[in-house]
Specification:
Blueprint (H helix, E strand, L loop, with lengths): L14 H8 L28 H20 L48 E4 L5 H18 L2 E4 L20 H8 L4 E2 H5 L19 E7 L12 H7 L1 E7 L16 E2 H8 L18 E3 L13 E4 L5 E2 L13 H5 L8 H14 L15 E6 L21 H19 L5 E6 L4 H9 L3 E2 L9 H5 L3 H10 L4 E5 L3 H14 L2 E5 L4
Parallel strand pairs: 1-2, 1-8, 2-3, 4-5, 6-9, 10-11, 10-13, 11-12, 13-14
Antiparallel strand pairs: 5-7
Helix pairs in contact: 3-7, 9-13
Length: 508
């Protein structure tokens, strides 16, 4: 039996076609009958040269009616996940085991990948926020290429000894439900990792060692792939890298181009088409950049497509487009990557303590509206002359104070709220800095007080995670211009809380 798909009004070229679609399927197309003598229509209106008035009126009426269907703006809520989907726990995409051979992680990843499925993964360096951006890009690339993303853990860049499973910070169940697509994790779904608190060098004789051929997105002027040894050791992998074809770069004519495009990467890894790349991808461009650390030289795999680093990827519109409000990766993936319920509850507990409220209260409604502030210092040194004090090279703190006053006014205009409480987070350790924050009447999270002792209670990652959760709770936010930490938190405040955000720079 042939099933006919319904046709929308916008796809019909004339209203007579609507009648044709309702006619019996006799094998002949009904011919519309044209007549100027319509039932109930006075014939005098068609006489004496007045027929053209009637014709114009009909044309205008049809045009207006048709436009109402065709040009009506589509609400962004059309892309939202209906609330009832969140309870759809039996759906295939909600169960990672549906996309794997076993319902538990295995010693080797290769033993758990289904022969009838295609996967994509990548790895990352350069700190928590930049790794998060790279993993957003990974998930988006999975959507674009029809592959199942396998998200690695967050690996430490400095001063932290263990890895952080991605779902320990972000709610992947919500993301799966919203996208209606499977999202897997290396450490919890695919491969058994027995030790997440420390990372040790992998032995070539380790029975858990997996060998994969991967792509490198490094600039073509670079002779080596990105250094991701920490991820290789954490996941017990041995990876060979081949340079991605030239057409995948944003500017294919510039050997120093660092940005690739989702369309170019997707073309290279489209399932069943990896071995049929365009002619431009031939010869030297597909040679192995360097053998793996254990001497393997493997071509990029068909079943599992993997990349060294997916931070510098764009839709093709602009470099670093994740900084823009219109970023498709943020719209489709990032805004749905909510923090876990446990992390948000911890954030509320610490926030209550910082505001002098009962930290044991369980009702989120007892928290007052707040403005959150992120002040990036560290390596964000700006206009410095020889002999200048280091503090003079940072953005003047008075600018943050002025921005908070401006955000407070905007929040009042938008929500009719008078916000008096301000929470600030910073990488600054100077006592003078924090004394000045206190003089403004602003509060901050103390992770080393007797009541907190965050690292001892929860682990090395949690001071950072709790700060991120608290900053996302603001109805207003002030951040540091060009800081990826600030950019992502601004988007969370705007999209999750319908809040307002503002950035402070040295020159603005």
């Amino acid at each position: 039996m042939q099933v006919l798909a319904p046709r929308s009004v916008s796809s019909v070229t004339s209203f007579s076609q609507l009648e044709d679609n309702q006619a019996p399927l006799t094998g002949r197309r009904r011919q519309p009958k044209l007549s100027l003598r319509m039932r109930g229509m006075p014939t005098t209106i068609l006489r004496g040269g007045r027929w053209w008035i009637f014709t114009c009126a009909c044309v205008i009426a049809v045009f207006v009616t048709h436009s109402a269907y065709v040009t009506k703006p589509i609400s962004l809520r059309a892309f939202e996940c209906p609330a009832e989907r969140l309870g759809d726990g039996d759906a295939e995409w909600m169960m990672p085991s549906s996309s794997l051979v076993f319902d538990h992680p295995t010693t080797r990843a290769q033993d758990n990948l289904r022969s009838d499925s295609y996967y994509v993964t990548s790895f990352a360096v350069a700190g928590f926020t930049n790794e998060f951006i790279a993993y957003m890009n990974l998930i988006y690339l999975g959507l674009q290429s029809g592959r199942i993303p396998i998200v690695p853990p967050i690996v430490p860049a400095a001063h932290i000894s263990g890895i952080l499973p991605f779902s320990q910070a972000f709610n992947l169940s919500t993301l799966r439900s919203t996208l209606r697509r499977p999202i897997l994790e290396w450490t919890l779904d695919v491969k058994r990792i027995t030790n997440t608190s420390a990372i040790h060098e992998t032995s070539p004789s380790d029975k858990a060692l997996d060998h994969f051929g991967c792509w490198s997105t490094r600039p073509r002027s670079s002779k080596h792939p990105s250094y991701i040894r920490t991820s290789e050791n954490a996941l017990k992998l041995d990876l060979t890298f081949t340079r991605i074809p030239a057409y995948a770069y944003l500017d294919s004519g510039d050997p120093n181009e660092v940005h690739t495009t989702f369309s170019g990467l997707g073309a290279a890894i489209l399932p069943n088409h990896t071995r049929h790349l365009p002619p431009v991808a031939a010869e030297k461009q597909l040679q192995v950049m360097a053998p793996s650390r254990f001497g393997k030289e493997l071509e990029p795999g068909e079943q599992l497509a993997c990349f060294d680093f997916l931070y510098y990827v764009t839709s093709g519109m602009e470099r670093f487009e994740f900084e823009k409000r219109w970023s498709p990766v943020w719209f489709m993936v990032g805004r749905h990557l909510r923090f876990t319920d446990r992390l948000m509850e911890l954030g509320r507990e610490y926030l209550r303590r910082a505001l002098g409220l009962d930290p044991g209260a369980s009702d989120a409604g007892d928290l007052p509206p707040i403005i959150t502030v992120h002040i990036r210092r560290g390596d964000f040194l700006f206009k410095c002359n020889k002999g200048d004090e280091k503090a003079e090279c940072y953005i003047p703190l008075i600018k943050y104070r002025q921005a908070v006053d401006d955000v407070r006014k905007r929040v009042h205009q938008k929500h009719r709220l008078d916000v008096t409480r301000v929470i600030v987070a910073s990488d600054e350790t100077s006592p003078e800095f924090w004394s000045e924050m206190t003089s403004y009447g602003w509060s901050h999270i103390n992770h080393t007080s007797h009541d907190s002792l965050t690292v001892k209670k929860y682990g090395e990652w949690y001071p950072l995670l709790i700060d991120k959760a608290i900053l996302s709770m603001g109805i207003g936010f002030v951040g540091t211009l060009s800081s990826t930490f600030s950019i992502l938190n601004a988007r969370r405040v705007e999209d999750w809380n319908d809040g307002v955000a503002e950035f402070v720079g040295y020159h603005n």
